[in-house]
Write a structure and sequence with these properties.
Layout: E1 16-17, E2 22-23, E3 26-27, E4 33-36, H1 44-52, E5 55-60, H2 64-69, E6 80-83, H3 89-92, H4 101-111, H5 113-125, E7 130-134, H6 141-152, H7 157-165, H8 167-171, H9 174-187, H10 189-193, H11 196-200, H12 204-215, H13 223-228, H14 233-243
Parallel strand pairs: 4-7, 5-6, 5-7
Antiparallel strand pairs: 1-4, 2-3
Family: Belongs to the protein-tyrosine phosphatase family.
Pfam family, one: Y_phosphatase3
GO molecular function, one term: phosphoprotein phosphatase activity
Length: about 240
């Protein structure tokens, strides 16, 4: 298996391995859980590189409209794809710069709990090999899903927040520039630039808000929330066995 840096794989702006975080005497294993933005394309070299790191399963958190605008290239390349749209119409109404990320995240963990839990359950029960979770930017829906999974297996809150916060630096640059061009066509240049923080921002307080709502101070972290929305003890064990070691 190659250990070539994931950020050298073409087509992604925010592809990375969620690995190395300590849990007791062990750590999150390499190439068990990946996270990313939606790839613009998957050429032969990118497909081979993903197979080299063991990628088998993909969880696409985008809604039907997003998938129609930017169809996933994973299926045609032979990866198993699970579509689990997180946003509903009420969540889309909150995607406004005047609202900010923390209220949006609160809405997601309160109003989309079953689907978020389904995403974590799918991470746990997918076929052996690496699992990739992505949305459009790999920031909001992906960030919450990954945070729920990592906290469930005992990764420290500080490490989970740090993993989330690093997203912004990866999205600024060509990815953001392309989004601004797209939004300018619909909203005009001035209004499009008002969305910059919403598009690429990953402030600690946003994911902290989501975790506060989910965990409610529980010593079991995100586990009560996940169990309340359908995750079984066997699936919790499967998640631990997949990610730790």
């Amino acid at each position: 298996m190659t250990t070539a840096p994931l950020d050298q794989i073409a087509g992604f702006a925010n592809l990375r391995d969620v690995a190395g975080y300590r849990v007791g005497s062990t750590t999150v294993r390499p190439y068990a859980l990946l996270r990313s933005d939606a790839p613009s394309s998957l050429d032969d070299a990118a497909t081979a590189a993903l197979r080299d790191v063991g990628l088998v399963s993909v969880i696409d958190l985008r809604d039907e409209r997003e998938q129609q605008l930017a169809p996933s290239p994973f299926s045609e390349r032979g990866f198993a794809v699970s579509h689990l749209p997180i946003f509903d119409s009420s969540a889309h109404a909150l995607v406004q710069p005047e609202v900010g990320l923390a209220p949006l995240y609160r809405h997601m963990v309160e109003g989309c709990a079953t689907t978020l839990t389904s995403a974590v359950r799918t991470v746990a029960t997918s076929a052996p090999g690496a699992v990739l979770v992505h949305c459009t930017a790999g920031k909001d829906r992906t960030g919450i899903t990954v945070a729920l999974a990592l906290r469930a297996i005992g990764v420290s809150r500080d490490d989970v927040v740090a993993n989330y916060v690093m997203t912004e630096a990866r999205l600024r640059g060509p990815w953001l520039d392309a989004q601004i061009v797209r939004l300018t066509a619909f909203l005009g240049e001035d209004r499009a630039h008002e969305f910059v923080d919403l598009l690429v921002g990953s402030p600690a307080d946003a994911i902290e808000t989501a975790l506060d709502v989910v965990e409610q101070g529980s010593s079991e972290r995100t586990l009560p929330y996940l169990r309340a929305h359908g995750m079984t003890d066997d699936e919790v064990t499967a998640l631990e066995e997949r990610l730790l070691g």
